[in-house]
Each structure stands twice: as structure tokens, then as C-alpha cells.
Write a structure and sequence with these properties.
With about 350 residues, the chain is an alpha/beta fold. It has helices at about 15-30, 45-55, 65-70, 85-95, 110-120, 145-155, 175-195, 210, 235-240, 270-275, 330-335, and strands at about 10, 35, 60, 75-80, 100-105, 125-130, 160-165, 205, 220-225, 250-260, 265-270, 285-290, 295-300, 305-310, 320-325, 340-345, 345-350. The chain has 11 helices and 17 strands.
Length: about 350
């Protein structure tokens, strides 16, 4: 790795493999299918690893991502997003259906009716899942209203196979256990509403990375964590992973150092254009440094990471390398064309981030 230009995004192959295997085994032990969210990694090689380990398929956020993974041979894809279909996107859906089983999310009667109208005779080839709000208050209907949307979808000619939710409010300190119960209650209520309306529920889909391992057996039929594959600084601070579980870091060079008010500050050449600028209020900085758990990234600009360096640790020399863990790895992956795959200190491969920028 000493020959790499910086900044470079690194994926530790062995840690990645361990993370993938660990989640697959844990969920299988609860009889929960794993449908990992590929918007985190955007890399076909990783999706293939996940499926080879037993994932039933993958989750994506956009039709563009679905196209990339379908072209790469992934044959079961769920777009967990309430798409608003256009004539052009309907044609793109038909193209994906030529090779891939495709499921779509809807959260309104209007969306379902629009989707069915534009897909026409192909509407029955798409499985539809009704999105419910389990407390994150983003998209999704109230659980008790899920049947209204499902009935509208069925009348329009769509096949409804279940319900889903994203318990995104689990991304806060101490929230995961309570949010896992919110997820359970929302999916249970939504499924009951559909079944009372005469619509069988084959799929109850949930699961964020913070809650996936807390989901009780029987609550969901499948889980959709994404960040678990890599870990990031947010998961580190939430206690959902340890530093040794983090598979992605950004190799960066110390380009400047100075003392101010009795403290040491370094500048590394990894700014917001590779780390992303996401910083939830509860985090302690814009990222973390592997091997220096008390260091904090206190400021980011486009090409500078300002790091407050702990006084008791030897100060890295100018020109030395640091491995910085981004706060939100999904953003970092969308900022690079390629990821350098490592094993120990050796570069063993380069993976193209094929779904980068496929935002629609």
C-alpha cells in the first residue's frame, strides 16, 4: 500500500468476508432471509459474494442501481423506494425484468395506479411491497393504512407480496433496541391489515444495520442491512462494530501539522470529496482514525481533513499515512470510481464501483 497515491479508498478483503459471513450466519439462525442493501457498496463483486453466502437477493434504492446489478447477473432485486414511474422508467423496468425478478416499493394508491398504468401488461410481472412508517417519519404509510394502498395496487393489476419498512431512527445512541420493537409492531400491524383485507403477506421486510441483529425471530421474513458489510465511524460510535470490524478506510497522507492552544492538529489529504461531509449531531467528528481511537476529525473542507491529535500519542510525521474511517460509508463509496482491495498490507485487486452515480 505504500506505493498508492492518496487519498485512496481501501477495502480490507478479509474483514469484509468476515462481516458478510457473520451477518448471514446470524440471520439464518433466526430463520430470517438476508437481502442486503447494495447501495452501500455499489460493487457487483460484493453482491456476488453476498449471494454466494446465501443472500436471497439484494436491495437497491434506485432503478439505475437495479440496472447495474441485473447486468452483473444478480437475478433477484428489490427497489426499496417509492418510485414514481414515467414512460421512460417503465421501459427500463421492462428491460430489467428480462433477466431479473424485480420487486418495487409503493406507499400510495396514486403511485401504484401510475405504475400499473405505465407498465401495462407487464404490471403483473412485478412484485409490489407496501412501505410503512415504523417511526423514521420519511416515506411510508401508517401501518393501519397499508391495506388501502395494497387494495388499490391489486385493483390496478399489481401483485402485492408483502410489506416493508426502514427503521432509520435506529441511527442514534441507545436507540436500536427500542427501534427494533417499533419495526416489529409496524410490520405486524401492517401485515394484519393486509390479511384482514384478504391479501396474503409472504414478505415482511425490515432491518437496518443497527437493528438487524436485534430483530427477533418471527418478526420479519427478511432483513435489508447494508453498512454491516463495511462498518463505518457511525457504527463504531454507536457500538454496533469495533475498529477491527471496519473494512473500509481512506488511505491519506499527512500534509501539514501545527500546534494551537496547546493542542496538536494535523491536516490529511482526505476531505469531503472522498469522505463525504455527513456528521450527525451525536457524532464526535467527521470520521475516525484507525489505530488512533482518541484522534478526532474536527473540520473538513473539500481536500483537507483537520485532525485533533491526542497529545499522549506520537505525532505522525509529514508524509506518513493514516487510514481514516468515514462517518457514513455509503456516501464515501459514491465518491470514488474504484476501490483498492487489500489483504494485510498487500494490494490484491481493484473493484470498480459500478453503481456509482446511478441515482435515478
Amino acid at each position: 500500500m505504500s506505493d498508492l497515491e492518496t487519498p485512496s479508498l481501501l477495502i480490507d478483503r478479509d474483514i469484509l468476508q468476515r462481516n458478510l459471513s457473520g451477518m448471514q450466519t446470524a440471520l439464518a439462525g433466526k430463520d430470517i432471509a438476508l437481502r442486503p442493501h447494495a447501495k452501500t457498496h455499489k460493487i457487483p463483486e460484493i453482491a456476488r459474494l453476498q449471494v454466494a453466502l446465501g443472500a436471497v437477493g439484494i436491495t437497491v434504492a434506485t432503478l439505475g442501481e437495479a440496472e447495474v446489478f441485473a447486468a452483473a447477473g444478480i437475478d433477484d432485486v428489490f427497489i426499496a423506494y417509492p418510485l414514481w414511474m414515467t414512460p421512460r422508467s417503465a421501459d427500463r423496468v421492462r428491460a430489467v425484468l428480462a433477466s431479473t425478478r424485480l420487486s418495487l416499493g409503493v406507499d400510495s394508491a396514486e403511485s401504484a395506479e401510475n405504475t400499473a398504468a405505465l407498465l401495462g401488461p407487464d404490471a403483473a410481472r412485478v412484485a409490489v411491497r407496501i412501505e410503512v412508517d415504523s417511526g423514521h417519519h420519511r416515506s411510508g404509510v401508517r401501518p393501519e393504512d397499508a391495506a388501502t394502498v395494497a387494495l388499490a395496487a391489486r385493483r390496478a393489476g399489481l401483485v402485492v407480496d408483502g410489506v416493508f419498512t426502514f427503521p432509520g431512527h435506529s441511527y442514534a445512541p441507545g436507540a436500536a433496541a427500542t427501534v427494533a420493537l417499533d419495526e416489529r409492531d409496524a410490520l405486524t400491524a401492517a401485515a394484519a391489515a393486509l390479511e384482514a383485507a384478504g391479501i396474503p403477506v409472504a414478505v415482511r421486510s425490515g432491518g437496518s444495520t443497527p437493528t438487524a441483529l436485534l430483530t427477533a425471530a418471527g418478526t420479519v421474513t427478511e432483513a435489508r442491512p447494508g453498512v454491516y458489510a463495511f462498518g463505518d465511524a457511525q457504527q463504531w460510535e454507536l457500538g454496533r462494530c469495533a475498529p477491527e470490524d471496519i473494512a473500509v478506510s481512506v488511505l491519506s497522507t499527512v500534509v501539514s501539522a501545527h500546534e494551537r492552544d496547546g493542542e496538536t492538529f494535523l491536516v490529511a489529504d482526505a476531505g469531503s470529496k472522498i469522505l463525504g461531509s455527513d456528521r450527525p449531531a451525536w457524532t464526535t467528528g467527521y470520521g475516525r482514525v484507525l489505530g488512533a481511537p482518541d484522534a478526532r476529525i474536527v473540520a473538513l473542507s473539500e481536500h483537507h481533513a483537520t485532525i485533533r491529535w491526542p497529545g499522549r500519542d506520537p505525532r505522525p510525521a509529514l508524509g506518513s499515512h493514516l487510514r481514516i474511517v468515514p462517518n457514513h460509508v455509503c456516501l464515501a463509496m459514491n465518491l470514488v470510481d474504484d476501490a483498492v482491495v487489500t489483504a494485510g498490507d498487500r494490494v490484491v485487486d481493484v473493484w470498480h464501483v459500478a453503481a456509482r452515480g446511478r441515482n435515478g
